[in-house]
Amino acid sequence: MGGRPVNPAAIGRVDLVGGGPGPIDLMTVRAWRLLMRADVVVMDRLGPTDVRDHLDPGVEVIDVGKLPGHHPVPQDEINAILVDRARAGRRVVRLKGGDPFVFGRGGEELTACVAAGIPVDVVPGITSAVAVPEAAGIPVTHRGVASAVHIVNGQSEMTPATLAALRDDAVTSVILMGVGALPRLVSDALRAGVPADRPIAIVERGHHTDQRTTRTTLGAVVLEAGRIGVRNPAVIVVGEVARAGMLVPDLLAAGSRSGGTSL
Ligand code: SAH
């Protein structure tokens, strides 16, 4: 545990904090304030991991994105860490990539804290579902082009609603955690009648200095992704907004990323 004095009689608290897509300056001021007065910070693999360098040496940092064997800590263990530290009177920040409630399991952590009687709050973060396409100059909605957005976990089976969204050329589908499942997603989509020429963009490591955007089509994406070695983390955008030249992609996508400014 960290070196700060703790009053064991005092009940601690947990803040489930969205950290945005990576750069520190894409965090909210509230997130930063909470981090600067935290006793314990429970970190993820994604998001603003550089925050570590700004924390007081007395702060206990627990990285649940990875164990020594590279396995992530199971969710019930994370919940137990949050509850136990707060019960010991500590101010716990659970720092998450993006937004806590967008495929972040924030709902489970909130429920665990409430069930244990721990004061808990949720701080929104900039979700990669919107911010990563944006970093490549892709608006998830665009007047006259896309009027709805469907956000999907690529590791789940495709539901009829997801297939309908993919077939609808006025809907943008944004797939998170989809790199490993790409061949399955594409064959399901093609079999369900999504046209092979539907534009796709894959944006890897959005908002980082090594961000890379690949624009292709549904029919060609698996070969292309294999050829160039697409890797996680990446956001896959399917729909007309992903078409090269739809907006001013050369201007935006070519601009180098700062990777965040230091605070
Ligand atoms: N709660 C997070 C999402 C967690 S799921 C949010 O709101 O952003 C993790 C997935 O998010 C990754 O598999 C990837 O698809 C996406 N992701 C997160 N950060 C990213 C980044 N900087 N660049 C590309 N994809 C990212």
TrEMBL record:
MF GO annotations: uroporphyrin-III C-methyltransferase activity
Annotated Tetrapyrrole methylase domain residues: 16-220
Enzyme Commission number, as recorded: 2.1.1.107
InterPro entries: 4pyrrol_Mease (IPR000878), 4pyrrol_Methylase_sf (IPR035996), 4pyrrole_Mease_sub1 (IPR014777), 4pyrrole_Mease_sub2 (IPR014776), CobA/CysG_C (IPR006366), Siro_Cobalamin_biosynth (IPR050161)
Keywords attached to this entry: Methyltransferase, Porphyrin biosynthesis, S-adenosyl-L-methionine, Transferase
N-terminal signal peptide: none
Biological processes per GO annotation: methylation
Protein name: uroporphyrinogen-III C-methyltransferase
Pfam families in alphabetical order: TP_methylase
